[in-house]
Design a protein that fits this description.
Pfam families: YjgF_endoribonc. This is RidA family protein. InterPro entries: Endoribo_LPSP/chorism_mut-like, RutC-like_sf. With about 150 residues, the protein is an alpha+beta fold. It has a 5-stranded mixed β-sheet with strand order 1-2-5-3-4, with helices on one face. α2 crosses α3. The chain is built from 3 helices and 5 strands; from the N terminus they run αββαβαββ. The model has no long low-confidence stretch (mean pLDDT about 95). The two termini are about 15 Å apart. A hairpin with a 2-residue loop joins β1 and β2. It has a single domain, classed as RutC-like (60s Ribosomal Protein L30, Chain: A, 2-Layer Sandwich).
């Protein structure tokens, strides 16, 4: 079963590629890899929430936003080469706009990592960074980027 079929089986939809909010492209292919720009949790062109995790945004909400952001990153990969060409997910980098006393960044970014596992199975096992930051573009609570290997 391909990644697109698995996404549909999970009851999800691969969104349209989010329009860049600055001077960059959503994804680029280099040899047998595709690198995505950081993707925010846009839904139909808008952020479902803004603010810092641990203050205006709960860690449970942020976990869901990480799932949405990784779907947006997969959409960028799909637009660049086709999602069914992904051999494996190599790396996930997740950024969490964090209140000063919030330390649950790894649990938030598990939203992205676990969804990748649901979609790609063993081919979704990846290395990862989960980074707390003071602020993200547009006051987004979460941002996710991917590196994938393609055939």
């Amino acid at each position: 079963m391909g990644a697109l079929e698995r996404i549909m089986e999970l009851g999800l939809t691969l969104p349209a590629v989010a329009a860049p909010v600055a001077a960059y492209v959503p994804a680029t292919k280099v040899d047998n890899q595709v690198w995505t720009s950081g993707q925010l949790p846009f839904v139909d062109g808008a952020l479902p929430a803004t603010g810092k995790v641990g203050a205006e945004v709960t860690d449970e909400e942020a976990y869901g936003f990480a799932r949405t952001a990784v779907l947006n990153a997969l959409a960028a990969v799909h637009a660049e080469v086709g999602l069914d060409r992904v051999v494996r997910v190599l790396k996930v980098v997740g950024y969490v706009a964090s209140a000063p006393d919030f330390y649950g960044q790894p649990a938030v970014i598990n939203g992205a990592s676990e969804l990748i596992g649901e979609i790609f199975g063993e081919s979704g096992a990846h290395v990862r960074s989960a980074v707390g930051v003071a602020a993200l573009p547009l006051n987004a609570p979460v941002e996710v980027e991917l590196v994938v290997e393609v055939r």
